[in-house]
Amino acid sequence: MKYLKSIRTFTFRIAWLTLFIFSCRSPVDKSSTRDSLESSVRIGVLFSKTGARSVTEASMRDAAAMAVEEINNDGGVLGKQVEIIAVDAESKDNVYKGSLVQLVNKSMVSAVFCNLPVGARAYILPKVEQSNSLLFDLSDYVGERNFSPGLICLGSSPDQLLKPGIQYLLGLPKHPYSKFYLMGTEDAYSKGANKIIKAYLLSQGIARENIRESLVDVTSEDLADEIVAIKRYSTDGKACVLNTMQGAVNLAFFKEFANQGLSSLGCPIMSFTISEDELRQMGAEFIIGHLFSRNYFQSVDTDKNIRFVSDFRLFCAINELPEGVDRVTGEAINRAYTGIYLWKKAVEKAGSFDRILIEKALYGLEFNSPAGMVQINDQALSLNKPIMVGESDSEGQINVLWHSEQLVPGSVDKVKLNAQPIAKASNSYLVKK
Length: 433
Prior knowledge:
Elements: H1 4-18, E1 40-47, H2 54-73, E2 81-88, H3 93-105, E3 111-114, H4 121-129, E4 134-137, E5 151-153, H5 162-170, E6 179-185, H6 188-203, E7 211-216, H7 224-233, E8 239-243, H8 249-259, E9 269-271, H9 276-279, E10 291-294, H10 303-318, H11 331-350, H12 355-362, E11 366-369, E12 372-376, E13 383-384, E14 388-392, E15 398-403
Parallel strand pairs: 1-2, 1-3, 3-4, 4-5, 6-7, 6-8, 8-9, 9-10
Antiparallel strand pairs: 10-14, 11-12, 12-13, 14-15
Helix pairs in contact: 1-10, 2-11, 3-4, 11-12
């Protein structure tokens, strides 16, 4: 991107200057950062720093910490400094369960931000409902989402992620792709997403025999057999891989894909679960030319996002985080950052830290995020957001190929529609070409 070199030079110089001024203490310290709870308000950050999910979630911890630092430097929330209680979920459902209950019952946080595993929902949601904490779930979801008191869903529904990506492929000139190979992991999200994808492809006239599927363990490192199958399936140049895999298995998949001689020219991969932050952990030669359906890319060319990218790099350099000033942003990073600010705006709108009042204040709330304007649905506590399709380049960046003309509503399934119709947000977020 045209501004990356100047940002890199500027942030590098500022980072070293700032090191003499600010402490370099880790931004995800579990211990209390203030002596008196009277002058602070706590929030829980429950992401995986270790395990298969850490490929995405470790950076979400960093983004949340940056948002809190900005908020505190600007005076805090309702006169209180925000204190992070960060816990490593270890990529294990049972750790999510125990840690979240600990956060809402003993740490008494105002809100918890996490990617709530499907397998932990039935246990966790009643605990949250009985507490005075809000749960901001940043994970994508499929099917019907049962909205629960205290639950705010900031992830993407199939209409905001899966279907737009497929529509883009089917809408390409001369419709070059008529065969699809679905790659997923053995988890509830991939299984549900692939079921929706298959049904949607069939509804669009794709023959059933032209849809294949493989599911692998999320910890798999040897994907040679799957790549061999894809290689045979794509010899006619009409096949595309639709990727819903979660976690570190993506690293092994893309590398083996290239190692066996496959590329985006003969068989592109359309991914729905990863973006730039995950790609930085593999060489650009493994991912060039592949496609991504997401709600944010670092290449969004707006003043807001340019500042965000620069600030995140500076934050990483000051706190000695991996790659420092060369760090990239991505969908998950933007989502964690945006979630913290939506909570802040709702608290200020409510004028209180009471959960019920904050929850009411969230309806219809707007925020100018790095992705552009987003809005909490007027009918349900899910997020209306822009949709983008991008293509990775030789530098590991994802360039925007297509974007929605307006915000696409989040799910309102199983919700009593008792509010005003969804307001169309400003188109100020649109990507400049």
